[in-house]
Write a structure and sequence with these properties.
two-stranded antiparallel ribbon; flat; about 270 residues; four-stranded antiparallel beta sheet; alpha+beta
Amino acid sequence: MVKLENKYKRMCSEIANLMAHNQNPAFIKRCKVVLKYYGVKLMQISYVNIPVVPQVQINARTIESFSEFECYRRFRFRKDDLPQVFRLLNFPNEVTFDNGSKLSGVEVFLFSLNRFTSHCCLEDLVGVFGKEYTLWVRTFHWFCSFMYQRWGYLLKNMLHFWVQYFISFCEKIRRKLVLLGFPSNLGSCRAAIMIDCTIIASLRPGGGPIGAGGPLAERWSNWIQMAFYNGYKHHHGTEWQTLESPTSMCVDMYGPRSFRRSDLTVCMAI
């Protein structure tokens, strides 16, 4: 990093010397563009802050190493149910990553559940599960890929399975409305599922140069980032619509769609 910073500084100094000995307006204009390019590179280097997370030596975590209270708080499952969930998801006993590192399937399962059910960052979970920070990055990526490839069809093409339960879903929703004080004669209640939208924020798309880049490289059209920007929330992202049953199960997922559109627009587009 220091060598790269010195290189950019040396380039800026040489360009400044060339500008001092050449008064051609076109040449000076081009030199200013190049100086701006190297100036941005220097700023990026100056603000780079890579967190240094020390490796924590902790024995391999198992389900038995967590108490009943910790299991429910960290994983949202009772301790006795976790082995059954692990078995039903068809997790392998051992996972090998692209760099040759290995973890037990139980560790991958527990860490990823904890990552999904809490707002902790990876650095915080290193103190719980030990080992190296980058290993857990690979672990979480592997878990997401495995779950989508193995079980993703349950969210994409399984409405025909849930249709048989819609009548009982309607009755459960009707009973809940009665408990909340609504009239008991809700015989016409036909609501079986709830529609909800989830937003996944993203960085500004299309912000870089086209191709290899460079000081005079052509930039992507501004329309690209506008297509993903929501003026109400003031950030870019994509939107997913989910159908939730009264049993708290997600029965279908549709997306991604541009965050520029509202929830109603996404619903009407299906």
